[in-house]
Amino acid sequence: MLSRQPRRDETELGSAVDSLRDEVRVLRDVLDEIREALQWQNNNAADFPELVQNREPLGQTGCETQTDWSAGLQPPSQPTEIPDNTEPTPDTPPTLPSRELLSEVLHGDCYELLPTIPSGCVECLFIDPQYNIGLDYGSGSQADRLPPEIYLRQMERLAQLAVERLTPTGSLWFLCPEKWADEMGIMLSKLLPRRNRIIWRETFGQYRETSYPSGHRHLFYHVMDEKLSPFFTDEIRVPSQRMLSGDKRAAGPRVPDDVWEIPRLVGNASERVEGHPCQLPEAMLKRIVLCSTRPGDLIADPMSGTGTTLRVAQILGRRYLGIEKEARFVDLIKDRLAQERQREMFLQ
Ligand SMILES: C[S@@+](CC[C@H](N)C(=O)[O-])C[C@H]1O[C@@H](n2cnc3c(N)ncnc32)[C@H](O)[C@@H]1O
């Protein structure tokens, strides 16, 4: 007997049902994770009171008192006081030691670790999140394919946590692809004034013939204080078009405009480190760090990946704080930073 070929609308319906099924599965996973986390917190509240009450921040630098929250931002929420009636016993785990925030890389989830960093200490916070396009960072590609509203809510939470860490003159940089640029732009502008929306022309993108292939990403640059947040120009200047064409009227190097043409890293690029699906070029981070920070300032990257931000901060004499969820990427970052340290020692 001849079997009937499915009609086109039947096939489309089939794939719509499949993707709905995928989304339900992801939602179920997210709910399970939340349930597990709540369960874990309940079970451990008695053993680790510092996890649910006044959790000691990672560092105490005193700068957390400097933030002026009157500018319309909400101050970081105060931890809820939970009365502790238990007598301290020799088994009570010690609270995290206070220490100066020096350069370091933390292994863990940035949604949990960012709140433990004192508020008002970070001069420049750069975020290059996962783009929710099904890339496998280690937890499977499904983890990077959340329903859009859940993904966007996560990004908003991340941006809020980031803003709480910034100094009163700090800056927030947020990189995202065309796909999310509209939503991210609106979300970020509700949190902080925007200084620039930079187009990163990455030279070539994923090739396709169904529409113009995308060759750019959006880099949002927002600042805590439109007037007081610094913008250092000396080291970011580039030769002007007049200089390049040999025109005698050329006034000298100029601040680059808001379209940055920086080639993305291909597989055999000399700065490429193996084992991560998306590494940014150092040239991009160099401009960000140089225009918005002074030597010694603290720069943070809560989704560090291969540690490009941290490496650039290290080379330019800034302190850095990285967070990365995947253990193997943390190792990779530490190796990368150690190589730079060795090179510095060699050059001395
Ligand atoms: C787009 S990559 C960053 C690449 C980085 N800019 C670079 O140049 O190498 C995003 C990184 O965020 C990490 N990540 C995702 N969710 C995270 C979370 N909740 N906490 C910390 N890191 C996370 C991923 O493992 C991945 O390495």
Description:
There is one protein chain. This protein is α/β, with parallel strands linked by helices and 348 residues long. It has 2 domains: 9-52; 98-347, Rossmann fold (3-Layer(aba) Sandwich). 35% of the residues lie in helices and 15% in strands. The chain is built from 9 helices and 8 strands. It has helices spanning 8-44, 49-52, 110-113, 148-165, 178-191, 241-244, 282-292, 308-315, 327-347; strands at 104-107, 122-127, 166-177, 194-201, 216-223, 259-261, 298-301, 319-324. It has an 8-stranded mixed sheet. Helix 8 links the parallel strand 7 and strand 8 (319-324). 25% of the residues are buried. Residues 44-62 and 64-99 have low confidence and may be disordered. The structure holds S-adenosylmethionine. S-adenosylmethionine is lined by residues 109-111, 128-130, 137, 276, 278-280, 303, 305-306, 308, 323-326, 329. Keywords: Methyltransferase, Transferase.
Number of helix segments? 9
Percent helix range:
25-40%
Coarse morphology: globular
Poorly predicted ranges: 44-62, 64-99
CATH homologous superfamily heading of the largest domain: Vaccinia Virus protein VP39
Briefly, what CATH class of the largest domain? Alpha Beta
Q: What small molecules does this complex bind?
A: S-adenosylmethionine
**Given the helix and strand composition, which structural class is it?**
alpha/beta
Largest sheet composition: 8 strands, mixed
